[in-house]
Amino acid sequence: EEGIAVLILPPLAYAPAPFANAHAGTLSIRPETLTALVVDLGSAIAQRGVAMLALANSHFDPQQIAALRSAVHALRAAGRLKVAFPDLTRRRLAERLGEEFRSGACHAGSYESSILLAERPELVDDEARQRLPPLPVSLVEAARLGRTTFVEAGLDLAYCGDPAAASAAEGRKRVAELGEILAEAVRAEL
Predict the structure, then answer these.
(1) For 87-125, what is each residue's pLDDT tens digit?
(2) Strand 82-84 to strand 52-54: parallel, antiparallel, or no bridges (unpaired)?
(3) Which helix or strand (DSSP H or E) is residue 83 part of?
């Protein structure tokens, strides 16, 4: 809509995820691996004349965020391309994503479940979701207290927030807001 040519790379399927390591299906990578991959991808697209790399992140394990921040710093320091990275863990952006997100109690809660209901409802076990009671445990606070896993934080089922309150309508609203946040980051870099 704004006359900017865009290429969308495939999503990265693996990430640093030590908070979830105790749960089946988690395949965590080292933060250094993610940093190196993002730097290498940024360098490769810069060699092909791409002027900017915009990162859309929805995984908030502290090691993931640190790895992405390191990659952004390295890419900017190299000076070969611009990097747009709206860090949703920063208060000014988190404020826009609803109370549950702001509280930090949003892993598989209403915030994330709403997005899935809007975008990929076939991935949601709706019957199980509706039976889950609210669990107002802030992962942000847990990390500040030195907790390093969901289990240590009191999330035996790896969720917090209120998944039963999720809706596709709320998810569409959040997806639109996330899109606008990314677009603003791109515009700021331009």
Answers:
(1) 999 999 999 999 999 999 999 999 999 999 999 999 999
(2) parallel
(3) strand 82-84
